[in-house]
Amino acid sequence: MMRQLITGIRRVATATASAVFVLPHQNQTRSVVRAFASSAASYIKSTTTCSLAQTTTLAQSVKMLDARKTFTEDFFFRQLFDEQSHTYSYLLADIATKEAILIDPVLEQAKRDAQLIGELGFTLKYALNTHMHADHVTGTGYLKQLLPGTVSVISQSSGAKADKHLVDDETVQFGRHVLRAMSTPGHTNGCMTFVVEEQGIAFTGDTLLIRGCGRTDFQEGNSRSLYRSVHERIFTLPENFRLFPAHDYKGNMETTVAEEKRYNPRLTKDVEAFVELMDNLNLPYPKMIDKAVPANRECGLYDIPKEV
């Protein structure tokens, strides 16, 4: 816009400069000044005015697309998927020490995961759950059998059995890498978001999904708690942090803090509108809940079939 204004002024000044300096009467001077302003304005097109809004949008987009952190050379990351439950599991490892952790494993994929871990030469140190799932049975218990020495991990507030229970801001270490457990209740009381600050990533479980969130109509669900967890804990992470949910049903794989703060159709609402929305979703009763929740209370040690 500034370039167009300068161009307009130069053109008008060239045409009128001599007249401005030789006018003998004040009225004539005013006329020329008005003509000068009018002519300059004609060079500032209507699209220039629109560009102010466009510039704001562009600035927001640039902020939203701030460079993600690059994984360090000794950090391994692999996203895995279970088609039946639309669950993402995440294998992280220290490449130097070969110590690995697995987030949100699924019972039916435990053999696949154990094989991959063996092929890569890793040792599974921890099998963690972001919460006590209601849509699938965790693979944690089976992995403890397949890969002896694996330690099962879940929130102390989950009500589930595990070898290790986490509280807010507690950390687990694999090799030199550190994962911080951040309490984010709302979908369930025991929901946690796992953050690896150095790599700029967080695993949000069912608390925050891509352009959505977990339901709050069962398992101690509370819409206000979920809203507070997202806005006060997850949305306060750096905006370029990459977010990885426990599920997706539309083929999306990851998002960022900035994207969800701007585009999440549920969590961009104020808290009252969010609560009203969540209270009126009228979702069907979860198909797996009566099997999954009792099994997951035992951290996957319950009713493991001989062949999965």
From TrEMBL:
<comment type="subunit">
    <text>Homodimer. Monomer. Interacts with TST. May interact with RELA.</text>
</comment>
<dbReference type="InterPro" id="IPR051682">
    <property type="entry name" value="Mito_Persulfide_Diox"/>
</dbReference>
<keyword id="KW-0560">Oxidoreductase</keyword>
<protein>
    <recommendedName>
        <fullName>Persulfide dioxygenase ETHE1, mitochondrial</fullName>
        <ecNumber>1.13.11.18</ecNumber>
    </recommendedName>
</protein>
<keyword id="KW-0809">Transit peptide</keyword>
<keyword id="KW-0223">Dioxygenase</keyword>
<dbReference type="GO" id="GO:0006749">
    <property type="term" value="P:glutathione metabolic process"/>
</dbReference>
<dbReference type="InterPro" id="IPR044528">
    <property type="entry name" value="POD-like_MBL-fold"/>
</dbReference>
<keyword id="KW-0496">Mitochondrion</keyword>
<dbReference type="GO" id="GO:0046872">
    <property type="term" value="F:metal ion binding"/>
</dbReference>
<dbReference type="InterPro" id="IPR001279">
    <property type="entry name" value="Metallo-B-lactamas"/>
</dbReference>
<keyword id="KW-0007">Acetylation</keyword>
<comment type="similarity">
    <text>Belongs to the metallo-beta-lactamase superfamily. Glyoxalase II family.</text>
</comment>
<dbReference type="GO" id="GO:0070813">
    <property type="term" value="P:hydrogen sulfide metabolic process"/>
</dbReference>
<keyword id="KW-0408">Iron</keyword>
<keyword id="KW-0479">Metal-binding</keyword>
<dbReference type="Pfam" id="PF00753">
    <property type="entry name" value="Lactamase_B"/>
</dbReference>
<dbReference type="GO" id="GO:0050313">
    <property type="term" value="F:sulfur dioxygenase activity"/>
</dbReference>
<dbReference type="GO" id="GO:0031123">
    <property type="term" value="P:RNA 3'-end processing"/>
</dbReference>
<dbReference type="GO" id="GO:0005739">
    <property type="term" value="C:mitochondrion"/>
</dbReference>
<feature type="domain" description="Metallo-beta-lactamase">
    <location>
        <begin position="86"/>
        <end position="247"/>
    </location>
</feature>
<dbReference type="InterPro" id="IPR036866">
    <property type="entry name" value="RibonucZ/Hydroxyglut_hydro"/>
</dbReference>
